Amino acid sequence: SSNEHTLNFKKSKEACLSYIQDALLQKQWKRAAEFLTCYAESLEKDYSREHISPSEMIWRIGTEILWHRSQGSMKEFSCFMEQMKSLGVKRYLKVCLEHVFHLLCNGQIDEAYQNLSLAESWRFGEQTAIQDKEMKLIQAYRGLLDYYSWSKQKNILLEHGEDGFSDLAVEQEMHGYFRKAAMNLKEIIKIPGVWDIFVKCYVDLLEFYGDHNEARQVLNEYAYNSKFPANPNAHVYLYQFLKRQGEPKKSLISALKILHDIVPSHELMIDFNTMLQKSKKRKNRRLGLEVIFAALDYAGWKENAKAWSCLARQVKQIVISEKHLDWIKQEWNSRKDWWPAFHFSRYLAKRNWRENQSLSYEKALVAGILMGKDCKYFKYVSHQGCKAQLKQFRMLKKFVNKHSPVYLRIAG
Amino acid sequence: MEFPAVLFPSYFGAGPPQEEGGPAPVAGWGEHGQVLEGNRGRRQAQPAFVPRRGTTGERWEAADAAAVPVLLPSEGCWIPSPAPQDILFRSGLCRNLRVGKCGATLDFAKQLGHFFVDHPEDAFGSLGHLLHKNFYLGNSKLKVTASRNSTIRMTALVEDLDRLEARRGCPRQHLASRLRWFSHLCRDWLFEVPLGLLADYLHEELMQQWSSLLFDDSLTGGALAWLPREDEEAPVGCLVHPGGQAMNHLYFQDMVLEELPRARGSPAQFELSGHVRQVAAARVDGQDFVGVRSDYHCGVWKVRGKTGAAPTPLQVVRTDVPASCLTVSPHLPGELSVCTEGGTIYLWNVETGLQQLRHDPQTMFFRDHSPWRWSDFTAHPRVLSCADRTGLQCLDARAPKKCHFDLFKVGEEAGCQQGERVVLPMYLGRAHPSQYLVTTQFSVYVLDERLPLMPVLKWAHMMKAPPLFAHLMPGKPGRSHKVLLGASRTQELLLLQYLGGSQSACQLAGTPQKLHSITGCLQHLPTQLPHRHHLLQQRLAAPAAGLAATLQEDRLHKSMLIFQLSEAGDVFCQRLTHNAVQTPAPSSRDETITAPGSSPLFEAPASSPQSLGAAALRYRRWLRALFRACREPPRYTWPPSLSQRRLFTRRDLEGPAGLSSLQQQMRQRLRQAMQEGGRIQHWEPLALQSPPLPQTLEPAGGPDPLSARLTAAWAGDWEQWWEERTSFSVAQRQRALRERRRRQKRAQGHRSLSASFTSSLTYQSELSELSDTGPPVLSPRRPPILSQEGTPPASSPPVRSPPASPAPDEALLSSQSLRCRGIPKERRKTLRDYLSVWAEGPPEPLEPPGSQASQLCIPSSQSQLSSASQPRRKRPRMGF
Questions:
Q1: Nearest CB neighbour to B48, from listed A26, A107, A188
Q2: First to last CA, chain A
Q3: C-alpha–C-alpha distance, residues A253 and A256, integer Å
Q4: Minimal Cα–Cα distance from B105 to chain A, Å?
Q5: How much is the pTM?
Q6: Domain layout of chain B by residue ranges
């Protein structure tokens, strides 16, 4: 019968849990809280070998309820969290981390810092892999908070510096923060992951102290280490760093080229295209055309007037010079079966004309050159433009008519 | 297309998932996940942090207490799909087995038996014809003729079989040696289809049925679509949904969105050649393209964006292997992607046809047995995603073999758990061009194509069944995107909100919210009669089959309409209203708990009288239509009885000439017991018998008026009963009286036959049941044979009219009809003899339910009884 008792207990526990779940999903916090007080009994006879232990369940449910019910009473929340920390050894660091997050989101930076320091000094037997990761995160967040303190001191110092006198104590304090922050941040960014914020802060610290080599190395590692995820931001940070350092165009282009290879739809592609168009090298201008065509393949760029004007400008240039028409031809070849429906339908012509005339102008120019003057998009827009007696559109019509043999060469 | 300048920190691992897991009931609560520095002004001294989960979201509240039916139930009753008890073996002997490790035990023998009974021609046809001459089924001894040497008498075998059937469930059942001998002899050659092969197929089918009961992935994506119309002032739209008894009709129903959505006009209707599994829709260039998937066919329709525009069918493709996915391109008109269970992915363009992108029966990242495949579009119109249970890859349609990258992998990269599998991927293009949703049975992930493998958002959804349906409602800039997740079997519906993706990193906003399920309305409905309640319960609990939603905004308030389709073809709808005032303290509304039985739907409402009243009205109309459509024909439970043909051979009936006194005595007792409606408890001599049982409650002459009236009221046609009763003219009554007297006289002579009446009747009812025309329609006022084969009473729906024959008893007696019922030639004459006796005079009035025969204690066959007293479920393919 003890078995039966266990079974019954388990059943009622599950029932209670499902009531709580139901209440939470319907935002009935008070009801959930009432059931939770009953559920606390499950801690006494914890026979379960489940994935999530009852103590963790209570922590999760309780936290959720307090988020919504405590009406901003942080004291109550912290009190609950302290109890939860003592409840389970396995999840101590996790609970600490979540507590810190909550404090941070509520602007209690100092308390958060204290909690982080406390958690960092916690030791209990051998750490599991997960605990190890959590510990690293705790250190990293402490480093981040140190960085913010450093940055605060730095701003004070800079303001004072403008006044003409320096405060030695403040400066020393600032250096202290730097050491602590740098040490902790350095650790986490060695491990594969997304550490945008930590990397940014660390690089900022290094740059301030003039350690550009280390900064470059960190950014290179972050961008190019194959164990790390293909994070576009890593490349963006590197590019921005190189730009700040005043590196030659060549290295900027090569940094952006890699970004183009992994994310052809990145917003920096406009900058990249502009940079390439200005280049004297033929190869680069060719790449520029490729880049802008590739960007406009994506649905997110469909109505980007800036991108269309980039393309229109470059296409116009090529048509006028009548050199490298084969570039356009090559790009167009792989797109001619779907771009007309995707970009140059009559429906889009109407909508673009109605919503954004300058966009429709640029698109009409491209359409007129790529698909000839009989294309629906060009016809509609130029007709509307002429009807509205806009000079720009009359010029456009003239231009396309003049260069209509180009279309034949592209299509042929 | 901006990319967030800073992403939330997270670890990135590689390899198979490390975390041991399982369904965790509360895993999604109480976690911020990570924090990130939010936007802070230059002057602000302190950094402000934002959490990955836990920012406030929009507040949406249900307008009604339950979901409300949108359309009236379709004509004809819904046939529920097989339930576990149809497939599983249930027996005392096997219970011990089942508790063990082997899991479900499929009732293989019963299904094979069904096949033999349902398709005897297929099973034994040609050999039966061949052996026709060699089997003799008569009772008389075989005469010594030329054929004597090559003919065997089968009657004994058949009797043995019947006895075996009767003893099913008896712990001491022994196979008759004769049967064993016969089966040993015939096993290899008697069946038309090789038995081994047939058994293999049947087993395979059973396994498939069972696995689809556990998890049916053919519904993935859902079969409901909402096509908004923009050109009118009043908010209107078109609801595309399947219907009909086999869900093979496709309807395009125009709807007007008022307080409750209302159908406008009659729907455009298409009859398709298969069960509609999925309806997918996308709007391109102001036109809606609707893709419809059934098992072996996929079709595409075009609907102009204007109201009243008729849908145009464009093209249909047929697949050899069942299709598992059909998605419509949001970028290019008339472009779709199709996946089949054979592992092939096609890009389907209405103008240029099919282009095969990949064919790989193996799964992508690790081995998984599921043949399910999915495909969807991405931000690049030429790049398609393809998915199986192990993850997602993106393929470039221009060079599918060379250009591809991994978008999502069940593994450490996304922090998955062991055993986690992809359930539904969906392109979230309308929220953000490069975002993707992936649901698994444990979690929901938001992915960004630009950062593959690493989910930008992950949340444990805690749903009891895997979410098979998802619907996105994109938010305007600065507002949250809403994602609805729906499960099939449990009808769960969850509303999530998330923010970001371009300027800021993705965040889960607000708390996830559970919405009304269809079955939840049951507690709010007025009390029903028990059988109707049961019908309603079954109907409302049908698994969900689709999900659609629309946001409706006018100047003053915003609301969200959510449509849910059930497998029974019902479309229910619920409205959520946006609560613009951010109240941190919960309003009293939160805390009101709707106790079962309280029915805010049907109460006189205080706040908004029209809406609640409308909902109640809608319900009444729906209920009325449902009961009209699903009205069961008045069915009287027949006394369980069994065939006595084998007990009384013709010779027995001729006269008790050469019988021993004991036999005669027994016979007498049997007759007496049958007449009295009593039972024989022991076959010992009379002296030892216990006192006779009390008389049955109902007199033998027919049901008394009260019980007849109650029965009629129970069956729902009380009014008819009353009419009949009042219009019963005096003359008729006299005639009836005379009739009865005559019958009583005659009954003296036919007593032994009258006892066998129920038996032949039961036999007939079994037969008619086997011939798929639905449950037999019996009315006590008519001669039973007539009502069996004649036209059904007027109250039954016209759908199930059995083939009417001009002279029913003649038709019944014709040797052809007897043969087609499987009655052996030798027995036909006997049966004809019986029935001709009946045809002479009007039969005895039928005994009321629960009298006579049920009391008999002849070793009764339980299975036969149950099959006669309750309707069997409709059998799907292969005889079950």
A1: A107
A2: 88
A3: 5
A4: 25
A5: 0.77
A6: 62-71+463-580+611-631, 106-165+175-214
